Amino acid sequence: MDDRQRYDRATAALEPPFAVVDLAALHTNAADLVRRAAGKPIRVASKSVRSRPLLERILAMDGFRGVMAYTLPEALWLASHGFTDILVAYPTADRHALAALAGDPRAAREITVIVDSPAHLDFIEDAVSATHPRSEIRLCLDIDASYVAFGGRFRAGALRSPVREPEQAADLAAAVAKRPGFRLSGLMAYEAQIAGVGDDPPGRPLYARAVRFMQARSARDLVIRRGRIVNAVRRVADLDFVNGGGTGSVERTVREKAITEVAAGSGFFHPRLFDFYRRFTGRPAALFALPVVRRPAPDTVTVLGGGYPASGSAGPSRLPQPYLPAGLRYSPDEGAGEVQTPLIGRAAEDLRIGDRVWFRHAKAGELCERFDTLHLVEDDQLVASIPTYRGEGRTFL
Question: Is 270 left (phi over 0), alpha (psi -120 to 50) or beta?
Answer without folding.
Answer: left
